[in-house]
Write a structure and sequence with these properties.
The structure is a single chain. This protein has a 6-stranded mixed β-sheet, sandwiched between helices. Strands 2-1-4-5 form a 4-stranded antiparallel β-sheet, covered by helices on one side. Among the domains are: 229 residues, ABC transporter type 1, transmembrane domain (ABC transporter transmembrane region fold, Up-down Bundle), CATH 1.20.1560.10; 74 residues, 3-Layer(aba) Sandwich (Rossmann fold), CATH 3.40.50. α6 packs antiparallel against α8. β9 and β10 form a beta hairpin. The chain is elongated. 32% of the residues are buried. With 557 residues, the protein is α/β, with parallel strands linked by helices. The protein contains 19 helices and 10 strands.
Length: 557
Amino acid sequence: MGVDLCQLFIPRVVKLSIDALKSGTIHPHELSRYGLTIIALAVGVAVFRYFWRNLILGFSRLMERDIREQLFSHLLTLDRPFFQKRTTGELMALATNDLAAVQLAAGMGLIALIDAIIMTGAVLVFMIYINPTLTLIALSPLPILAVLTKMLSNRLHKRFSRVQETFSELTELARSTVNAMRLVKIYSREVDQTANFDRLGRQYIKYNMQVATIQGLLFPVSGLVANGSLLLVVMIGGRMAIDNVITIGDFIAFISYLFMLIWPMMAMGWVTNLFQRGMTSLARIQAVLNERPIFINDGSVLPLPAVIDSIELRGLNYIYAEQQTPVLQDITLTLSPGLFGLVGPTGSGKSSLCHLLARLYPVPEGSIFINGVDLNRIDINDYRRAVAYAPQEPFLFADTIAANISFGRPLASVQEVEAAARAVGIHDEILYFKNGYGSRIGEKGVMLSGGQRQRISLARAMLTQAPILIIDDGLSAVDGGTEQHIMSALIEYSRTKIVIMTSHRLAPLAQASQLAVLQDGRLTAVGNHQELLSQNDYYQAIYRKQTEPGGGEAHAA
């Protein structure tokens, strides 16, 4: 407002000086005063412009930071089903490309819009004050600009949506290719992946060129309409000045004001472009922010019991939202402190049961109880803090070994981290690295073997000392000797805690206090190793296959 006010008074000073010069009554000192006034107004424009650039552009950067933090923190509240629907590349695009478009709209776009509104309103007042008729003539082409801008804006929104969607696909392809670089090289897919990236890149350029076509029309159309207004003012206003309807000073001031009006007229196309891009991107971000987590604590939640004595499953049935066949059917089981083994063929529901016990998916009411209390009535955050989880395919951060092990317990001492590593038999191997526990292991632990990644994941879980430890086939890549060492540590760990472990190999589970067999989502047998070996046909068959010469155990070794 300060900038616009200073700019608006400059033509007024020019008008007064020109009219005074024409009348021949102006004194040199008075002319100098007019000049100094213009200089003062110009300095005011510079000072105010400096402050609005800092304040408004600074605001847009703060807003960008806040939305990015809001988006990131909101993503952390969402559950596994959400991330099965959205790709990582899409979410990365929201936090980069889309957010940049929002920032530009809230920065320069907001400045241009407010400037155009204030300048247009004030300029019109000054123009009407000079001559209302000439003002109407100058504004006559504006409806054409309004209609064309509306038509082009609708097309711009649709085309920019395609641009952002394609950028998400491009980002996801780049991310997944880099993460799977070893696989790409093993199968010699470099040329194919490059071709896919090139195809998406060309598609991205194509959609951007379609957006540029709309932008290329908005600016010339705005300029054409603005210059049409100038032509009418020169022709008709010039005649008015000749006929003394208005003074020469009024004519020059009116043209100056019209030039000020031309900028808002031309800026409307640019502002429309910025806001269409910003609103499109903001809608994509808002769609994620509108997602609600599945697990929400209400006022009736109960704190987790201080000591967990039992986990009871009562007729548990579960079916995934996108499937029609239940993955778990009528599971009734009671778990107490000790090592509990879960065996069964691939697809029998072992991992699904682990996911439910870890509360990665919603649990049906009245199906899982902790110390006799329905799991759904227990505070979700309290429960998750009481569960440590080691999956078959562990995720490791591109950080140090120590940071990965202590992720679930950041304040753990060096001695506690080393003790967890020793328990899973990886301490000596860590010392072989140049920087020991301070060695960085690359994206997803690319510098480690499969067995090393699994053991670091298990060390992370054991370090938390959580009362419930779930190991979902987390030793599948570990050799037999190391496996025995780990099982000894797990037996000791399970003396006061509930340890649930799934495995395709029966040897490590033979020491479990209790075993269960899952087949086709149903619990077919429960007992210890000897009981199942004598009573369950599936368990007998798997045991023979893995222990006889040339069987599964021999191959695994």
